[in-house]
TrEMBL record:
UniProt keyword Acetylation present: yes
Source organism of the structure: Psorophora albipes
Name of the protein in its database record: ATP synthase F(0) complex subunit e, mitochondrial
Role this protein plays: Subunit e, of the mitochondrial membrane ATP synthase complex (F(1)F(0) ATP synthase or Complex V) that produces ATP from ADP in the presence of a proton gradient across the membrane which is generated by electron transport complexes of the respiratory chain. ATP synthase complex consist of a soluble F(1) head domain - the catalytic core - and a membrane F(1) domain - the membrane proton channel. These two domains are linked by a central stalk rotating inside the F(1) region and a stationary peripheral stalk.
UniProt subcellular location: Mitochondrion inner membrane
GO MF term list: proton transmembrane transporter activity
Subunit structure: F-type ATPases have 2 components, CF(1) - the catalytic core - and CF(0) - the membrane proton channel. CF(1) and CF(0) have multiple subunits.
One GO BP annotation of this record: proton motive force-driven ATP synthesis
């Protein structure tokens, strides 16, 4: 393994800058996450309302399809006159 020598002492200004950017990044991430979470709650409420409407429409369509299928089966199973 190569001899890399002694590590260089990092300037206190650079250390301060690195830690400052880390703290600012974490604070921004927490703020942004909170903002997105609030938006997501609103979207989920709207989707819940739309789901109720969509489920009612699907149930009505399923009922109509079952009635049409029952009528088609009845027509096919009825004896034909010759």
């Amino acid at each position: 393994m190569a001899d890399l020598g002694a590590p260089v002492r990092v300037s206190p200004l650079i250390k301060f800058g690195r830690w400052s950017f880390l703290v600012v990044g974490v604070a921004y991430g927490a703020y942004h996450q909170q903002r997105l979470a609030k938006r997501e709650v609103g979207i989920r409420e709207i989707e819940a309302q739309q789901k109720a409407i969509r489920d009612a429409k699907l149930a009505e369509e399923k009922k109509r399809n079952q009635a049409a299928e029952a009528k088609a089966i009845a027509d096919l199973s009825a004896p034909t006159k010759k």
